[in-house]
Amino acid sequence: MAKPLGFKCVLCGREFDPRSMVYTCPDCGPDGTLDVLYDHREARKRINRTTLASDNRPNLWRYEEILPVERSSSAPDLSVGWTPLYRATSLSGKYGVGELFVKDDGRNPTGSL
Is the whole-model pTM more than 0.70? Predict the structure, then answer.
């Protein structure tokens, strides 16, 4: 796994140790979500277009090389991604764009992933 270097608050920039168990910045509250900081060169060695093209697991473990967690045997293999795209012809005509598609990410476990 490409280990995270730490976490950084998107609002105030405060950084946290990668072993910390904080999920939002204590100074900024629930709006202070934390970005995961990586050594991107190291991560690119482990996950890239080739590795993704050869891994068709329809769940988050497809990205386990860059996830900031260790895989647990008790973690469920929830399907993530591969949600449908719908052609939105009415909207494309309304906004004057050639083709427009709407992606239904509401089927993901978090509703947004």
Answer: no
